[in-house]
Amino acid sequence: MNPCTCHISNLRCKNENCSDIIKARGTLKIEISHILYSLMTSLREGGCGKKESVTALRRELKRKNNLQWDMFDEAAHKIWID
Q1: Cα radius of gyration (the chain)
Q2: Which of 44, 48, 59, 73 is a Cys-bridge partner for 69, taking CB atoms 3.0 to 4.6 Å apart?
Q3: DSSP letter assigned to residue 14
Q4: Are 56 and 46 in contact (CB under 8 A)?
Q5: Whole-number Å distance between alpha carbons of 81 and 45
Q6: SS3 of residue 34 by DSSP
Q7: Which long-range contacts (CB under 8 A, 24 or more apart) does 16-22 make?
């Protein structure tokens, strides 16, 4: 199989690797939306407001650890150990 030479955000690429990435992106959006809906429902029922709930969850997702890695970097490092 030839490696893809386009940027992976190109959603029209027919390369097999890009196809897998495109599918994973769709799955990620669906899974995260289910998690967020559940968490925000729980926060609302607990008396938290919309703004602080969104801000806190967004901040946590974007938070970087002491290595300046975010959650995606951390997960990738555990799977593809250099």
Answers
A1: 17
A2: 73
A3: -
A4: no
A5: 40
A6: helix
A7: none
Q: Using CA atoms, how far apart are residues 69 and 10, in angstroms rounded to an integer?
A: 25
> Tokens representing 48?
């938290």
How far is residue 4's CA from residue 19's CA, in Å, rounded to a whole number? 10
What's the pLDDT tens digit per position in 2-45? Answer: 566 666 566 777 777 788 888 888 899 999 999 999 999 999 99
Q: Give the pTM.
A: 0.71
Angle between helices 50-62 and 16-45 in degrees, nearest 10: 140
| Burial of residue 40 (number of CB atoms within 10 Å: 0-12, 13-18, 19+) | middle
